[in-house]
Amino acid sequence: MAKERAARRAQREVEAAARAAERAKEIARTSRRRALRDRVRALVPSRRRRPDSVLATRRRAENLVVLGLFGLVQLLGWVVLHSVRASLGLLVLSAFVLPVVLTLAFDRRGG
């Protein structure tokens, strides 16, 4: 009976040692990976973000409005026209007219 318990205890200790070795190997691999990542990050220059200016915020809002209106025109054209050819024509026409509308609506040079 005592020999069996000793054999089971020895087996458990062997298994525990194997698990500990596996854990140590995993930790070593993780630390090597982290060290490599840190070395690569040190080589890449960091991006410094400046706070957005008022003009940048306004431009972003204007661009979102223009994109939304462009999408709305395309969606309405697709629903109303019921034709792929007409929808493509509307897309091409919109692409040509868009710079003109942007210049008229948002040009800051004018007087």
Q: What do you see in this structure?
A:
The N and C termini lie far apart (103 Å). The protein folds into two domains: 1-48; 54-106. The chain is built from three helices and no strands. The radius of gyration is 33 Å and the shape is elongated. The mean pLDDT is 89. The chain has helices spanning 2-43, 54-81, 84-106. The protein is mostly helical. Helix 2 runs antiparallel to helix 3 (84-106).
Secondary-structure blueprint:
Elements (H helix, E strand, L loop, with lengths): L1 H42 L10 H28 L2 H23 L5
Order of helices and strands: HHH
Class by SSE composition: mainly alpha
**Mean pLDDT, all residues:** 89
Q: Name the beta content range.
A: under 5%
Helix amount, in percent?
A: over 70%
Kindly give the count of domains: 2
List keywords for this structure.
111 residues; mainly alpha; 2 domains; elongated
